[in-house]
Amino acid sequence: MTGEVSGYDAVAEARSVRNVLDIHWSRICSRLQTEVGEVEYRTWLKQISIGPVDGDEITLHLPTRFLRDWVRTQYGDRLSALWNAELPAIRRVELQVGRPDPVADPAVAPGDEAPADAAPVAGAVDERVAEARSELSRHDLAAPLDPRFTFDTFVVGKPNEFAYACARRVAERPSSPGFNPLFLYGGVGLGKTHLMHAIGSELTRGGKVSVAYMSAEKFMYRFIAAIRSQSTMEFKEQLRSVDVLMIDDLQFLIGKDNTQEEFFHTFNALVDAGRQIIVSADKSPSDLSGLEDRLRTRLGCGMVADIHATTFELRISILESKAAASGVPVPAKVLEFLAHKITSNVRELEGALNRLIAHANLFGRPVTLEATQDVLHDILKAHDRRVTIEEIQRKVAEHWNIRLTDMSSARRARAVARPRQVAMYLAKQLTSRSLPEIGRKFGNRDHTTVMHAVARVTELMERDTAFAEDVELLRRMLES
Ligand code: ADP
Ligand code: MG
Questions:
Q1: What is the per-residue pLDDT across 137-150, written as a single tens digit (0 to 9) for each?
Q2: What is the mean predicted confidence (pLDDT) over 136-163?
Q3: Is the whole model's pTM more than 0.70, yes or no?
Q4: Listed residue (410, 412, 454, 461) closest to 433, CA to CA
Q5: CA dist 459 to 85, 222, 416, 421, 462, Å?
Q6: What's the fold here for domain 312-382?
Q7: Spelled out in words, what is the top-level CATH class assigned to the domain 389-479?
Q8: Whole-angstrom distance, CA of residue 138 vs CA of residue 213
């Protein structure tokens, strides 16, 4: 394996795919030669050249209609079976008259299409098989890294600064004690995959470090495919030959006992060999019930970093950065509006902004608050949490053990005033009520009092993590 996980060069990609197909075809040819004998092979099958793969179908070409029909009736099924055994993704063989079209396949020079002229000798086949395996592994083992997900494009704020720092650290010095494995966890759309890709891009930039990134689902799929094609040894070797292994969304392995077991062994082999493991999941290792205990224990042995739910401030920073990158001017009012309305995850926030920008580009109209409400009508409706101010007051009063009536009383003692401010802040965040309306519900207070409360709570949340967590918890309870 090498460090190039690019996967974005289409011609190189087509060429490698082609090489892989050629090599598999060599294997099939030598199989057929033994099965049908030299004479039969030379008479009929030697004339086949391989064409492109489309979906689960590979096209094979024969020079004449007669040959095509003969091969189809005599060897059609056998050819399908052999291809399928070589490459499980191929399920059907299509036989056509003619030669493969070199134009349709940029990777094939005329006369270079297949080793059809002579069956390769055994030694050469072995060599090419080995080549095919490593070629395949490069292609198939790791998913390509998304070039947009870098450290530069990741916006750092309170909720993700620790995870970000850990990711940076691992990218700088992989396999350092205390940071192996790196376990990133957090809710959907909060940047786990982004950070993993950022680490991968950083590490592969020098070209010296080999990185394999894949989702746990892909890991399972590859493992099962390896069992089917009787190549589990190769699969294991491939995995164990990387310097950095990243498995995304590990929670997917819950209940998949065999795959979990395989992952556990791979994990141990790599860590013992001083390689770096990076794993993400939606929960902390200790909360991932359903994962084998010994795996859970090992996962928690390195650095465990969580990404918290976004704060309003972080959402604004992310929106600002993405709007700036798009080149379309988006008024601050619109960004604030979005950050207030779409609180669940960054992916949705990003999606909403992208839609606004696309609209602006398409119709050549500036982004305004009215246009936003119009364009995002459906998204906003889904996010219109029907939380009432009364509900907020009740929950907050319960949380800090004060009387509900104190929400509208004139008492100014800190023990009462602070929860009241939190309730006002949450009312502003979670409802579409205006400041004067909110003020009225809190004992007819002035809208400037509400404004002050919002500013004060925001500031406190930045300074005091425990307080911030309390408020976030309340927000989540009210939202659910
Ligand atoms: P997860 O893997 O945690 O579900 P992703 O990493 O796929 O989330 O993030 C979802 C989307 O939000 C991606 O497009 C990602 O670039 C973006 N995103 C998440 N967090 C941030 C951040 N802090 N800064 C910039 N973009 C972010
Ligand atoms: Mg993800």
A1: 444 567 788 999 99
A2: 84
A3: no
A4: 454
A5: 63, 49, 18, 12, 5
A6: Helicase, Ruva Protein; domain 3 (1.10.8)
A7: mainly alpha
A8: 11
Across the range 219-246, mean pLDDT stands at: 88
Bridge partners of 276?
Answer: 244
Distance from C-alpha of 201 to C-alpha of 261, rounded to nearest angstrom? 29
Nearest to 1 by CA among 223, 167, 214, 271: 214
Residue 387 CB-density burial (10 A; 0-12 exposed, 13-18 middle, 19+ buried)? middle
Query: Which CATH class name applies to 161-307?
Result: alpha beta
Binding-site residues for ATP: 189, 191-193
> If one looks up domain 2-138 in CATH, what number appears?
3.30.300.180
- Max distance between CA atoms of the chain, in angstroms, equals 103
**Nearest to residue 82, comparing CAs of 121, 25, 38, 1?**
25
> Counting atoms of ligand 1 from 1, which one is nearest the CA of 186?
3
Pocket of ligand 1 (CB under 6 A): 149, 153-155, 160, 186, 188-194, 318, 346-347, 350
Ligand 2 centroid vs 380 CA: distance in angstroms? 24
State residue 314's pLDDT score.
96
Please state the domain extents for the chain.
2-138, 161-307, 312-382, 389-479
- With a cut of 60, say whether residue 354 has pLDDT above it: yes
Tens of pLDDT along 195-212? 999 999 999 987 788 999
| Sheet with 92-97, edge to edge strand ranges | 49-54, 57-62, 92-97
Between the CA of 278 and the centroid of ligand 2 the distance, in Å, is: 13
Cα(172) to ligand 1 centroid in Å equals 21
Beta bridge partners of 93: 58
